[in-house]
Input
Amino acid sequence: MTRWAALTLITLAHALGSFSVLAVAPLSPFLLDALQLSRAQVGLFLPAIYLGGVLMSLPAGWLTDRFGVRLALGLGQGLTGVSIGLAALSPDLPALLGLLFLGGLGWSALNPATGKAILDWFPPQERGLAMGIKQTGFTLGGIAAALTLPPLTVLRGWRWAMATAAGASLLSAGLVGGAYRTPPGRPTAAPSGAPRLPELGTFLLRPGLLVLFGSGLALSTVQSSVLSYLVLYAKEALGSSAVGAGRLLALAQAGGAAGRVGWGIVSDRLFGGRRRPGLVLTALIGAGAYVLFSAGGFAGDLTAALAAVAGVGAFGWVGLYFALVAEVGGSRYAGLLTGVAVAFAWSGVLVGPPIFGLVLDATGSYRLPWLILSAEALLVAVALASLKPLVQRP
Output
């Protein structure tokens, strides 16, 4: 296996897993009607998944460092697929949320495992691009879900659509288990001197790293809010159909995919391997787009263009963020530190969509929720721009 074959495999695994866990986003208008939910309750779907991810992210990072990428990722994706498949049978909201939570437990292995794979296979001067490509799996899976699941729901119902999404994670588990290999010269699992959880204290005493983790949390609240409510915003405020609103979400995720790859190339070749400048610029782009959404967006093709730009801001930061965290941890601590970063970032999903939904229900307007997201992104840009370097580069 070459490093590019390994990258293709883990990117595909990321895309298939994302297709499963992000299915609830484009299905939200159908679930709202089928289960007779409020708009605030729709904001609980992604937090249910990511709560499982937050609680399991640190153990998942340790398991990745201890037992290797193939085992951790394969088992995690398998658990996600089974859980989402059972969620398709849910009779009510509590059952659905509980099974989404179980799916999140498996989903927690994805970033630590794929992040460690990048660190193992790629030299520093190629990691930004590799991580950006790998992270496009998230948005590509989301694009596929947004384009295919609403039409499938119209034809067969939301349960068929969710069951189809579950099959993607099961396929991912099979591919990883059967095809992934460790790079030559590196052990499949960590030696007996594998990193221990108490060793995290050394990293957590670094104020700059805590600012980075906090920025990941804030950016994640923004990303998850856009993911949870863009479809409803397009349907209710812009007058789109449910299928048309799903296409708008797909455009936003396409912008995010382009941003992840583009910022990876820029950080490697123009920023000398530095990741923070791209993170700052991405946050600023998002802040401007959310202000325009608060004003009601645009008509026709301009709204589509704005959705793509908003996607760059909402989804384009993740590759740079996890590349930087993995580089801070180095080969020994990459999985463990990525697990901590995931816990911080995914905690943002627990609060972002519910707050967006509560403000939306309280005001009856999308204006204030979008402005709150813009303010968050702007604060992140300022905080990251003020940091000293976190990684010493040659």
User: Anything to note?
Assistant: The chain has one domain: 3-385.
